[in-house]
Amino acid sequence: MEIVRRKTRQIHVGDVAIGGEAPIVVQSMTTTYTRDVESTVAQIHRLQDVGCEIVRVAVPEMEDALAIGEIKKRIRIPLVADIHYNPSLATAAIQQGVDKVRINPGNLINGRTSLQQIVAAAKERNIAMRIGVNSGSIDALDQRTQMQRIQVRLRDDGVLERSDPAEARRKEREHLAERMVTRALEYISWCEAIGYREVDVSLKSSSVMTAIEAYRRFSLRSDYPLHLGITEAGTLISGSVKSAVGMGILLAEGIGDTIRVSLSAEPEEEVPVAYEILRSLELRNRGVTFVSCPSCGRVEIDVIQVANEVEKRLAKVQTPIHVAVMGCVVNGPGESRDADVGLAGGKGKGVIFRKGKVLKTVPEDQFLDAVLKEVASLLPEAEAKLVYPEGGIKEVAGTHRTRDEGMYLPILKS
To answer: How far apart are CA 37 and CA 185, in angstroms?
Structure first.
């Protein structure tokens, strides 16, 4: 199945294009106090290293807005100011040279008047704006708990009627999603009335189904580019799953021009998850496509330790490359042959594949060194040095399992 992306107008955030035929852009947000310039810049540098293409910073007070100029001088990627309530924070951030502002229609004081003030400043500097609608800011489902209970009432004709909580939730979700879309379109109309169209839109919710419903509805009624996200998604595991499900469904339908995976984790953890979602749908081909086998009774090496260590050391690689770490006789050789670099491990030793061909057999205490050395040989010099430093990899990753006799793997006997 080939995904056909929805046709949207294109805007620019700094030198990064969003919408139109541009690749889907990966974003993140800092967790530092923006006024702490050193910490904020350091975190943005870490985000740059793992492939973040646009970064957003919180601007809750004027001191944070006034720090943006210094931050901008020291980073390579476009910077977005996250604004709530006070329009003067947006105008100050714009004067400091920010590349984009994000406003929340649910809490922007004085609504249209404040928006016009922000747009005037944005137009003067020729920068973009995100209209970021959140379900929690537009009246969350405050009766959700009540709706989820099954209720029984006695009708006038004496028949007991039981409610359908699932149907009640569906109707409430549709109502909330429609209100989110209506609010976004209202703000867009105010922007267009004063000749401003450098806008993208987000319609986020912590409820996956509400977010999907809102994005679908908006995409049918407007061609402005969409920033996808499941807000307050959760910790690394739960948040990654919710984001993958929600954004994956939308992206597979061709909806979405830029994404952020929101996690209760360091922001550097968000970016690899975002790229993995895009790679899985064949929408981006940046970085490492990593394959490793699940732990099972056939595995004869500590594949979990080896795979985790290899993946961690390849986190900063941006060149497209396919790497496999396999630990059993069933799928190992096939998956490893399909990769640019692969390891098929058996008890005490493993075979290294490169571009489908057997390269050599190595003992298990050399698994990590052998895999990373071959990966580095396929990368540009700057990335190769990150993966395989001078002197090689001294650490050992992986130990054999306790099976008395190894499973039959003819290729390991060579």
So the answer is: 36
Other residues' Cβ atoms within 10 Å of the Cβ of residue 403: 12
Alpha-carbon span 372 to 17, nearest angstrom: 34
31: tokens are: 């967790």
Q: Where are the beta strands (DSSP E) in 251-398?
A: 258-259, 288-292, 321-326, 341-346, 349-354, 357-363
CATH annotation of 288-413: 3.30.413.10
pTM: 0.82
Local confidence pLDDT in tens for the 414 residues of the chain: 789 999 999 999 999 999 999 999 999 999 999 999 999 999 999 999 999 999 999 999 999 999 999 999 999 999 999 999 999 999 999 999 999 999 999 899 999 999 999 999 999 999 999 999 998 877 533 334 333 444 566 677 766 666 566 666 677 878 899 999 999 999 999 999 999 999 999 999 989 999 999 999 999 999 999 999 998 767 888 999 999 999 999 999 999 999 999 998 899 999 999 999 999 999 998 888 888 766 554 556 667 788 888 888 888 888 998 998 876 655 556 666 778 998 887 777 888 888 888 888 888 888 888 889 989 999 999 889 888 988 888 777 666 555 555 544 555 555
Of 57, 98, 16, 245, the residue nearest 229 (C-alpha): 245
Lookup: tokens for 156? 């006038």
Only one residue has tokens 């922000």, namely 118
Domain segments of the chain as ranges: 11-142+164-280, 288-413
* Whole-number Å distance between alpha carbons of 226 and 215: 8
Q: How far is residue 322 from each of residues 140, 318, 337, 343, measured CA to CA in Å?
A: 43, 12, 10, 12
Q: What are the helix (H) ranges across 77-164?
A: 87-95, 111-125, 144-148
Superfamily of domain 11-142+164-280: Dihydropteroate synthase-like (3.20.20.20)
Taking the C-alpha atoms of residue 414 and residue 407, their distance in angstroms, rounded to an integer, is 15
C-alpha distances in Å from residue 92, one per residue of 115, 164, 226, 397: 14, 50, 26, 51
Bridge-partner residues for 83, per DSSP? 103
Contacts of 268 (CB under 8 A, 6+ apart): 28, 43, 46, 47, 49, 50
Tracing tokens 């001078």 back to the chain, one arrives at 390
Residue 247 per-residue DSSP state: H
- 305-333 b/e with 16+ CB inside 10 Å = b? ebbebbeebbbbbbeebbbbbbbbbebbb
